[in-house]
């Protein structure tokens, strides 16, 4: 209710003087205070002057939480005109004189019933703000940092550091699982390739060269040094893991416990991918199996810092009037379009107009979480995208039947952002926003760095050196992926060999069966011929026998 929040303050109620003069311009503060947090505003006079007459006459304001702005009340200002300055509040000064360093304060009150608000946190924030903004509809954020559950009970004006300690029990459990898996593989390999003298039988893969090669490669990878780590912590035996003469792995529990407690990160680095740079503005994000480790590290030379796209309006006067002709605008960010943004009809300073547009943007369903910034710059409105890179753009359009020229948003310039550019390991890398990725088919293929350097941070020489390492678990994973490659892995080759042998055996059996069938047919024909011959011979024998018998009878008679 405007009447409730309107107060006309005379000099004796508000302005306090330190200059020896007495400011005598009447003050009126009006409007609906929008937030649910009470503030106190302090207004101070920049220099002596007469309201509406003196060129460059300003009043500076600052709130309880460090917010600040200024109001032009000199030449061109009509005394008594309300000017919006912050959170729905307006200030009007009547005719009169102001003296430098005089000031007055305005305190606000809030309703006991508050509107619900989102949780807002910034990762990587500094005292000046910045950082990645995250919003949630409740005070729990369990998906911001993998493996970390966060619950918030109050807000903080200063950055809060969250320290995360490694879970030693889970780490030991995972290492035991690793050792068990390694020993299971070794035992299985021996079982399928042994010869049992007692039964004089051979296992299926006895003397199989592919199995022997796999066993040797896995054992060699496991006991090898992890390049890129300090010599004192670059092998498994340094944390108490040993392989005996039977090829089985064992754990020296006392040594492992000591290492996990005293140097958790060093133990983790023995198993995982790890990377670090010597520049806090260049962060290691990850790598792939194609990335090769260089013990000396890779030089990182940034030739162009990533930039955000922005829209810069045309110059504006000290007082900006928003009415029914210019109170609706539409903002496009990276091709995504906001709902129509409606501004309250009022008189604004450049700072209060920027803040009002910022607040309306934060409430927008399409762009509210995209971290777009609206600020004043050299007497103009500047709208800055929340993302970096070539695809980062800001465009402004008027609402239906509206004209934004009086807001400086008609003939402004839209400038797209730029991708980070540079080289890793003296080879030109690929930039996408603030992400710098090693060139394909190079030693740094797949290496990913997050670069937050500004243009002022760039130097003629390299900006950083990145050192990377691949732990035992990662190298074994890469090795097993190659061994099990469905196109050219050892297992595929072994399977192809066995399949080829079985096919060869089948072909040999088929040939032998054909030969046997041919020989059987030939023998059957011979047998049939022999049987026929034997039949004829028996017939002839019978005939001869009859003739001989007849001849013998004739002689006797």
TrEMBL record:
GO terms for biological process: bacterial-type flagellum-dependent cell motility; cell adhesion. Pfam families: FliD_C. It comes from the Bacteria. Residues 131-278, 461-538 form the Flagellar hook-associated protein 2 C-terminal domain. One of its GO terms (cellular component) is bacterial-type flagellum filament cap. This is Flagellar hook-associated protein 2 C-terminal domain-containing protein. It comes from SAR324 cluster bacterium. The lineage of its organism: Bacteria, Deltaproteobacteria, SAR324 cluster.
């Amino acid at each position: 209710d405007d009447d409730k929040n309107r107060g006309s303050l005379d000099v004796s109620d508000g302005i306090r003087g330190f200059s020896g003069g007495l400011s005598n311009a009447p003050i009126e503060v009006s409007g609906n205070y929008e937030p649910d947090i009470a503030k106190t505003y302090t207004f101070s006079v920049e220099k002596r002057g007469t309201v509406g007459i003196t060129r460059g006459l300003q009043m500076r304001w600052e709130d309880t939480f460090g917010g600040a702005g200024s109001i032009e009340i000199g030449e061109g200002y009509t005394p008594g005109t309300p000017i919006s300055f912050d959170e729905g509040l307006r200030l009007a000064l009547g005719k009169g004189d102001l003296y430098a360093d005089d000031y007055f304060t305005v305190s606000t009150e809030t309703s006991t019933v508050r509107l619900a608000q989102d949780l807002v946190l910034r990762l990587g924030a500094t005292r000046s703000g910045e950082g990645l903004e995250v919003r949630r509809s409740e005070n729990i954020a369990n998906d911001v940092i993998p493996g970390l559950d966060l619950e918030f009970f109050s807000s903080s004006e200063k950055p809060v550091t969250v320290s995360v300690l490694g879970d030693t029990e889970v780490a030991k459990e995972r290492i035991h699982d690793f050792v068990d898996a390694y020993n299971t593989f070794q035992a299985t390999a021996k079982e399928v390739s042994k010869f049992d003298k007692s039964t004089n039988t051979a296992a299926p893969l006895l003397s199989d060269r592919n199995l022997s090669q796999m066993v040797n490669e896995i054992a060699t990878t496991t006991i090898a040094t992890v390049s890129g780590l300090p010599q004192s912590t670059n092998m498994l035996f340094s944390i108490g893991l040993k392989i005996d003469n039977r090829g089985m792995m064992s754990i020296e529990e006392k040594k492992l416990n000591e290492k996990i407690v005293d140097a958790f990160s060093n133990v983790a680095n023995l198993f995982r991918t790890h990377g670090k740079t010597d520049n806090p503005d260049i962060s290691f994000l990850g790598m792939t199996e194609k990335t090769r480790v260089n013990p000396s590290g890779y030089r990182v030379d940034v030739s162009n810092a990533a930039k955000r796209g922005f829209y810069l309006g045309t110059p504006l006067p000290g007082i900006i009037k928003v009415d029914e002709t210019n109170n609706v605008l539409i903002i496009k960010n990276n091709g995504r379009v906001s709902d129509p943004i409606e501004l309250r009809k009022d008189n604004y300073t450049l700072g209060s107009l920027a803040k009002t547009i910022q607040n309306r943007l934060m409430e927008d369903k399409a762009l509210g979480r995209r971290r777009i910034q609206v600020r004043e710059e050299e007497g103009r409105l500047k709208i800055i995208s929340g993302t970096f890179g070539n695809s980062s753009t800001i465009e402004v359009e008027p609402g239906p039947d509206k004209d934004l020229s009086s807001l400086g948003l008609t003939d402004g310039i839209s400038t797209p952002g730029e991708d980070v550019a540079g080289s890793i390991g003296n080879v030109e890398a690929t930039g996408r926003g603030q992400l710098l990725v090693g060139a394909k088919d190079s030693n740094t293929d797949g290496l990913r760095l997050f670069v937050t350097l500004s243009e002022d941070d760039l130097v003629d020489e390299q900006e950083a050196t990145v050192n990377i390492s691949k732990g035992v678990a990662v190298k074994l994973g890469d090795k097993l992926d190659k061994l099990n490659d469905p196109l050219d892995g050892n297992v595929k080759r072994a399977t192809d060999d066995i399949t080829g042998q079985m096919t060869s055996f089948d072909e040999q059996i088929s040939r032998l069966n054909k030969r046997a069938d041919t020989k059987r047919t030939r023998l059957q024909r011979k047998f049939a011929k022999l049987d026929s011959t034997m039949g004829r011979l028996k017939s002839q024998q019978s005939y001869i026998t009859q003739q001989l018998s007849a001849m013998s009878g004739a002689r006797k008679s």
